[in-house]
Amino acid sequence: MAEVLALLGGRSLIENKEHRLWPIVTDDERARVMGVLDRGVLSGSFAPEATALEEEFAHFCGVRFALLTHCGTSALQLALAAAGVGPGDEVIVPAYSFVATPISVALEGAVPVFVDVDLATGCLDAAAASRAITARTRAIMPVHMHGGAADLDPLLVLAKQKSIAIVEDAAQAHGATYRGRPVGALGVAGGFSLQGSKNLSAGEGGIFVTNDEALADLANRVRNFGQNLPFAGRAPFNLARPLDGARELDSMRMGSMFRGNEMMAAFARAQLARLPERTAQCIAHAERLSSALAKLPGVIPPPILPDRSSVYHKYRVRLDPQQADVDLSPLALRDLVMCALRAEGVEVVLWQAQPLPAHPIFQAQRTAATRAHRSSDESTDIARNYDASLYPVTTRLLDSSIVLFSQSCPLIAQSSEMVDRYAEAFTKVWTHRHALVAWARANASVP
Fold first, then answer.
1. Residue 397 CB burial class (10 angstroms; 0-12, 13-18, ≥19)
2. Strand 165-169 and strand 177-178: pairing?
3. What is the CATH number of the domain that holds 192?
4. What is the span of the domain harbouring residue 77?
5. In sequence order, what DSSP letters do the residues of 80-148 get, joined into one string?
6. What residues does 94 pair with on adjacent strands?
7. Taking a C-beta distance cutoff of 8 angstroms, is the pair 222, 197 a contact?
8. 427 closest CA partner among 349, 337, 361
9. In this predicted model, what pLDDT tens digit does every residue of 224-282 receive, in sequence order?
10. What is d(CA 288, CA 283) in angstroms, rounded to the nearest whole number?
11. Is residue 234 within 8 Å of residue 216, measured between CB atoms?
12. How far apart are CA 331 and CA 308, in angstroms?
């Protein structure tokens, strides 16, 4: 007989202090950052650490060009700008992602148009994207959710048929593959994030990628106030005069200061050197955990798909009350299990709790569109598109699932022993799920 649940007075299986925090900082990161300070070159269009990171990351992703940016959102903006997205254009995005996805579209003056997602992967549904295309659609932005590759081939076929661009949001997916190819630039361009929680962390930062030199040049201009800064015209970087340069400062188009800095690049280079090994270990741990959880009725771990890989930036588990023989709504079961797991010492979060159109920023735009009473066959009816009730799959996914491990203590940072403890804790809670429901009802915690 399994132990009494910690929530009901039993012993917790895991102590919080046993988790490893992320990112893991070693003497290598410290030495590289100190090397930047000792050199005294902290920034620059072609500064040495930034250009070295760009070359190394391009090799890692199997792409021709990479550009360091100050965050993942600006990397996405460069990708959208390079794809020709501008004011009045529409870009199709999934209703489930981090808000940076649609905001990057809006920052380029374009309109994010939401579509529903696939329940199993949480990634954009290609059929839904096809139905959302209008005369104003300029691009589709699939998101490789939680480090798992989206189904790109149907989208690439659709994009070719409709003469629109595929811009990949690979913020969480460093090293993920689709049909044997690294994600990021399987469309025209893409963006990664180096934010502190990401598998490749630099605290903040992003990387734009593409295989098209013309798009790389355009993105580099956007990254530098719209000034001419072609790759072919790179001059040797003068370490003695790092803030000086001979290029003209006339801005040729709209742009901003989206570059990253040298300390960010140095830290990321140290992390990148260890990323393949850490990723392989993370995948092995995820598959080991999934094998254990799949034995529990009504517990659905992340899918393992034959044509793509995940780097498990996040580990989302779905719960099915019917399969579990539990008389609760998915939402009630989700919240109850989360409480019980937390009592056992498990790091468990929701991460996102509602579809992106439900965010106040988009509800405000919906209200404005409703008042304006404008709609046409040429464009998307925003008042309707931003109705969060139109995304039942996204809502179902979020109402019936939890994310194991947290931003501060992600799966990639944990030991195999900790992963086994998570499997043990989840099994303990699930074995007692009926007692847990009875306790909750006795305490009026659930209907």
1. buried
2. unpaired
3. 3.40.640.10
4. 27-271
5. HHHTT--TT-EEEEESSS-THHHHHHHHTT-EEEEE-B-TTT-SBPHHHHHHH--TTEEEE--B-GGGB
6. 115
7. no
8. 337
9. 999 887 765 566 677 888 777 777 788 888 899 999 999 999 999 999 999 999 999 99
10. 8
11. no
12. 30
